[in-house]
Amino acid sequence: MAGYKPAAIQTYPVLGEKITQDTLYWNNYKPPYNYAVTASSRIHIYGRYSQEPIKTFSRFKDTAYCATFRQDGRLLVAGSEDGGVQLFDISGRAPLRQFEGHTKAVHTVDFTADKYHVVSGADDYTVKLWDIPNSKEILTFKEHSDYVRCGCASKLNPDLFVTGSYDHTVKMFDTRTNKSVISVEHGQPVESVLLFPSGGLLASAGGRYVKIWDMLKGGQLLVSLKNHHKTVTCLYLSSSGQRLLSGSLDRKVKVYSTTSYKVVHSFDYAASILSLALAHEDETIVVGMTNGILSVKHRKSEAKKDSLPRRRRPAYRTFIKGKNYMKQRDDILINRPSKKHLELYDRDLKNFRISKALDRVLEPSCTVKTPEITVSIIKELNRRGVLANALAGRDEKEISRVLNFLIRNLSQPRFAPVLINAAEIIIDIYLPVIGQSPVVDKKFLLLQGLVEKEIDYQRELLETLGMMDMLFATMTRKESTSVLQHTSDGFLENKKVES
Question: Which regions does the record annotate with the repeat WD (predicted)?
């Protein structure tokens, strides 16, 4: 066995994955901190790396639905289910002001650009403007015909603010005219609105659509984006203003370029997304989900290079010493072959421990980080004709690990040819003993469905390739054919006729 050749580990490139500047930028976040939160009559404020809240406001009669900081970070305004709007000082606990006027739940609050007024929208179809110094209601707008669930104020003009409603409309109000000045039809219940810093563009989200409107042209639709599979619930703009983020119930956060409005990056989360925010300079991304988890990702800090004293290297003559030495007649040349260290799975394969070799590459550390090693060993066992022996005779725990790996990677095109064969062998071996373990039965049925679905995909692809071959065949250059024709003098002449 001295000439054992290690198993060849093939490389399986991820198809369609392109490394761009956006990919490097948005992937540069640490693993998230997850906070378990529930809907309650309290508002918690967390520090950057604190696991426990550093501040709590609990003077609400009912569930708190929304909260917004003022631009200077000193004041916090919040709305609750009972229709109340309260203003807090970040250094205290008791509310500074209480605004009573809404009769149903308040879902959106924001400060105007002058920092002395608050805008609120509620389920009573109304939008109200409040004066902070006097704690009084200044204006009430009743132009919406359904719940007002989102809104934002202009950061440049203290008289302008925008609201979105479940009546499918987005309205821009001007406090100087006491009515809306622009109204656009989104086409779906509006879940979120976002006014760009310049005030000239407006983004609205509702249904599966994100729409961009030109407010300087009276609300003209610029672009309609449909990149989510479920309802879009939230929008946010990056610190540079060049990237727009959208969160959806399909558990994805999409990042768009604000110049081309194409998706440049995407985040995946464990549950449907309800809210989304970015910290200053995009240092932190915060996502709230339907499972009660608040996910907080912090940007990785750039490692500083330590200025170590430069080590003196050997002189040039050290490297060329003996280079021109000529072998003498009595010299004996001794070659020292470098010793090759085999991996643990190669040692098992060398000693014909095929089941042990398969167990090693099914460890979580291997299947998650380097699944191509697991696939290569499965392919090697199949080449040797012992894959069925390695998969047979396994208990519930061992077969569950195999099924988990197949279910996770079977749908990947780069692994499908190898894993489909392994899945068919498992189905043939363990089909007679199905029904003895509920856990294995569930995974077994799921695997069987995936195999059938993947085979259907392969059949459809083959049919498509056949159609394309026929189309390409008809598009080839027509070849000339030769025929014999009689001339006027009675002789036969060979002529070429285009077919």
Answer: 99-140, 225-266
